[in-house]
Amino acid sequence: MLSFTTDAHDAGKRLDHYVQEHVPGVSRSRLQSWIKAGLVLVNGAPAKVSQVLRGGESVEVSPADPAPLAAAPEDLPVEILYEDASVIAVDKPAGLVVHAGAGTESGTLVNRLVHHFATLSQVGGGLRPGIVHRLDKGTSGVLLVARHDAAHQALAAQFAGRTVEKVYLTLVQGKVHNQEGRITTPIARDPVRRIRMTTQMDTGRSALTSYRVLQRFDKLTYLEVRIGTGRTHQIRVHLASIGHPVVGDKLYGGPPAERIFLHAYRIAFTSPATGELVTVEAPLPPVLTQWLERMA
Question: For 117-203, where are the alpha helices, taking DSSP H only?
């Protein structure tokens, strides 16, 4: 344990800033995780990251070992839709996180994959083996996993070159009047609510979303959506920007539901193993099919 005593020169400093000054070589995000875990005490009590020091406090730091740099295997189910010598296509259920991140260290799709498959690509590092692209936690559907580094690089080149076909099914609020449409507004991180993306900034990354109406209901519209880019929350923020947020998407103002109605239905790509075009489809989950049947 490390012990310090603040003085008058430290008055007004945030706790995490103070600790970073006195524990060199450790990132602020890691120090903040220590504070949140109660490993940093101020006058013998747990404190908040943003606590402002007054001077004269005792600060005790109990350094924690860094998180493991490799995902641990977990014997949990994985639904395989397609596989060859280079790639695996899985059907990710809604609610499942793809890989470890803030607040999630286990139970992810990656934890399941490393249990079921002896080798996966390491291009993305030990915490994201095989992961070439991702789906939001609330989104279900088909996702590609690379078996080795060469396959990962080949697939990544296809995504970057926009030659991968990605088709989604979604239910949105309101009646979409045009039978087809395109949304090309750039997408940026919301400067106020950092967990959101926005189309309201002057700058942002280019994004392309096209949609086609499959069925109209009283107050909702069922769409087929294709994306030419893979920006964070792209479909959700683009559809919300034209007044049609996805059902169940609280973050972007969608009407309440038990889950987000967004499903990655089809992906088409060239297999690095065979050079042939492969099309993989993930059936619409029963809970979403039932929603449509109830409204018909």
Answer: 149-160
| 248 Cβ contact partners less than 8 Å away, ≥ 6 residues apart | 138, 254, 255, 256, 257, 258, 259, 260, 261
Q: What is the span of the domain harbouring residue 127?
A: 68-161
What's the pLDDT band for 24 if we cut at 50, 70, 90? confident
* Count of domains for the chain: 3
Q: Which residues carry out catalysis?
A: 136
Regarding whether 180 and 143 lie in a shared domain, the answer is: no
> What's the chain's average pLDDT?
93
Band of pLDDT at residue 1, cut at 50, 70 and 90: confident
**Is-contact 91 282, C-beta < 8 A?**
yes
Q: What is the pLDDT of residues 151-164, one digit of tens each?
A: 999 999 999 999 99
Kindly state whether residues 168 and 247 are assigned to the same domain: yes
Q: H-helix or E-strand containing 20? A: helix 15-22
Same domain for 154 and 74?
yes
User: Domain for residue 283, yes or no?
Assistant: no
Only one residue has tokens 């600790």, namely 19
Q: Which tokens in the block code for residue 38?
A: 């109660």
pTM, rounded to two decimals:
0.77
Q: Do 176 and 226 belong to one domain? A: yes
Backbone angles phi, psi at 114, to 5 degrees: -70, -20
Residue 112 is predicted with a pLDDT of 94
For residues 213 and 223, the answer to whether their CB atoms sit within 8 Å is yes
The label of the residue with tokens 């400067």 reads 191
What would you report as the CA-atom Rg of the chain, rounded to the nearest whole angstrom? 23
How is residue 19 annotated by DSSP?
Answer: H
CB 139 within 8 A of CB 280: no
